[in-house]
Amino acid sequence: MTNPIATEWNENAGSHTKIAYAGLALRDIVSKELDPYFQISYNDYLSQVEDFLGNQSILTLPEIILLEVDEQGECFDLIERLKGNPLFSGLIIVLLSLSNDKSLKQDAMRLKVHDFYIYPFSISDLRERLNFLVKFKLIKPRLLEISKEVDIKYSMPAGKRFMDLFISGLMILFLSPVMLAVVIAIKLGSKGPVIYKSKRVGTGYKIFDFYKFRSMRTDADKMLVELSTQNQYANEDGGTKAAFVKIKDDPRVTKLGKFLRNSSLDELPQLFNILLGDMSLVGNRPLPVYEAEMLTSNEWSMRFLGPAGLTGLWQITKRGKADMSERERKKLDNFYAQNYSFWLDWKILIRTVPAVFQKEKV
Predict the structure, then answer these.
(1) Over the stretch 117-143, which tens digit does the pLDDT of each residue have?
(2) Are residues 126 and 193 in the same domain?
(3) 118 and 243 share one domain
(4) For 7-59, what is each residue's pLDDT tens digit?
(5) Of 156, 102, 114, whose CA–CA distance to 306 is shortest?
(6) Are 46 and 195 members of one domain?
(7) Which domain holds residue 33?
(8) How far apart, in whole angstroms, are the C-alpha atoms of residue 206 and residue 331?
(9) CA 20 to 30 Å from 303, out of 83, 148, 197, 313?
(10) Which residues, 6 or more positions from 67, have their beta carbon under 8 angstroms from its beta carbon?
């Protein structure tokens, strides 16, 4: 078993946090590590934890519900009842499972539980995750609020903004025939909108509408939950989540979409994001909201204190290669946020051109 990592924040954050636990199979394992750091009320069965919650007031409710997944799936029925009760709807819910059955994880994702761990897992990682979830809920419950509370405000340098406007304006002008051809091809190839618009998190946790040419089926977002639980597509990481979600040989991508992605033509609408000031030509890639929520800890929040960009360090360093780990990407993002400059931006832009046409798929 992994020894706990002793940090001031990790040791003290959960000392006043109350947890309601239900289950017997993993209780002894969990209690050895969590008891010194949390106030835990143990219950043998799901019905007992439901009765326990029913006897609490607003002032005595636990912050976290920690449930072992049962074979009958009754824990999911309990979660639905809890979420339907306004008094319990804001509770943090984390599931622990002895089974690697993909349908269980799929049910958990459908119910939007806060995390799902498959045994064996690191108890110290679970402890730090619970501390983080409580901190995120109490101090920074929404990314919109986080954007107002960050300690360091990013201000776009005048020279960088001028470069963004000048280059993106020229590119839109000269590439307009190419963009028109892509629009026609998408319209003829499949039904649905030409532009895919999604919420992304950029500089200072600012949320904005992110534009791309549609390269996927129109039901792609709905398919993501199912694909993430299938062994040939999911990351097998012992129940923990990866921050950067990539699906190899993604079946949601259309035939035209594969060409657009491999040629990076699907990224062209982001030139308008740059004109609007949501992004810069060079910076850290803006992330989907559900991914950004995983990167609000002190270790990784630095990446959001630099500009959001169309291209960046990790895209030109190991773009599309299998050995680019999630941690390497985050470290490169943090490095850029702390060290970006006019000349570094130009070096990245120059190296982006060959990176776009390399053989490896992104």
Answers:
(1) 999 888 888 888 888 788 766 544 455
(2) no
(3) no
(4) 433 444 445 789 999 999 999 999 988 998 899 999 999 999 988 988 887 77
(5) 156
(6) no
(7) 8-139
(8) 21
(9) 197
(10) 21, 22, 23, 46, 49, 75, 78, 79, 93, 94, 95, 96
Q: Are residues 114 and 202 located together in one domain of the fold? A: no
Query: Of 129, 89, 77, 80, which Cα lies nearest the Cα of 238?
Result: 129
Q: Contact, 144 vs 250, CB < 8 A? A: no
CB 273 within 8 A of CB 210: yes
| 305 pLDDT higher than 50 | yes
Token readout for 266 is 């699907």
Question: How far is it, in rounded angstroms, from Cα 301 to Cα 49?
Answer: 35
Residue type present at position 129: R
SS3 state at 2 = coil
- Closest C-alpha to 236, from 358, 91, 105: 105
The one-character DSSP state at 244 is S
Q: Do residues 22 and 98 both lie within one domain?
A: yes
Give residue 295's identity as a one-letter amino acid code. Answer: L
Q: Establish if 313 belongs to a structural domain.
A: yes
126: nearest Cα among 137, 136, 112, 115: 115
